Amino acid sequence: MRIFTETGRLILREITMDDIEAMYELDSDPEVHKYLGNTPIDDPEQAAERIRLFRKQYVEDGIGRWAIIEKSSNEFIGWTGFKLVREERNNLTDFYDLGFRLLRKFWGKGYATESALASLEYGFDKLNFDKVYAMAHIDNSGSNHVLKKLGFKFIETFYLEGDLHNWYRIDKTD
Ligand SMILES: CC(C)(COP(=O)(O)OP(=O)(O)OC[C@H]1O[C@@H](n2cnc3c(N)ncnc32)[C@H](O)[C@@H]1OP(=O)(O)O)[C@@H](O)C(=O)NCCC(=O)NCCS
Predict the structure, then answer these.
(1) Which of 10, 30, 64, 65 has CB 3.0 to 4.6 Å from 58, enough for a Cys bridge?
(2) Does the beta carbon of 7 lie inside 6 Å of ligand 1?
(3) pTM of the model
(4) Under CATH, domain 3-130 is a member of which superfamily?
(5) Residue-wise pLDDT tens digits, 50-106
(6) What is the DSSP string of 19-69?
């Protein structure tokens, strides 16, 4: 199993079909989905389908979201990393989006910030990205806070599926 990078407390590795149970716990939690369109899943097969999609992106796009593993427990705590967004968003296509989604029991420990920072370093240093985009629902205080802490600059707001979102960018030179 491929490990991409690590931090003091976390390992970022590829997501595999062995992660179905944890992915189901993550994506069936309504609190996790509060600012993600309010559509939690209710069938483990939907979690399996998401993992297949991530793994397809590894092959087709050379990148995809990565599992975050807590070193002290060896538990899957969520995912972060990049997605190559091919559909048009805000007049852009084919750009890299940074995201993160953690199991609720692991919130508030600084893990989103730590894992996202490691992803950005990998993206800029190893993959040679020159810029990365991110977005968050305007009411998602946690996510907006993490993105600003990471150094993302606010660009503008835009509507996604009827909800207002903040749109951000960070450049390698930042
Ligand atoms: C958003 C999310 C990833 C944050 O994860 P986390 O590991 O708790 O974040 P961190 O511990 O790294 O928090 C970093 C900072 O954000 C703050 N923060 C976290 N949640 C917050 C909230 N709900 N309101 C205000 N601030 C918040 C923390 O206090 C911390 O601030 P500090 O470092 O200045 O003290 C997590 O809540 C989550 O997975 N939410 C559901 C999925 C989601 O919304 N993903 C983002 C989609 S855009």
Answers:
(1) 64
(2) no
(3) 0.96
(4) Gcn5-related N-acetyltransferase (GNAT) (3.40.630.30)
(5) 999 999 999 999 999 999 999 999 999 999 999 999 999 888 999 999 999 999 999
(6) GHHHHHHHHT-TTTTTTTTS----SHHHHHHHHHHHHHHHHHHS--EEEEE
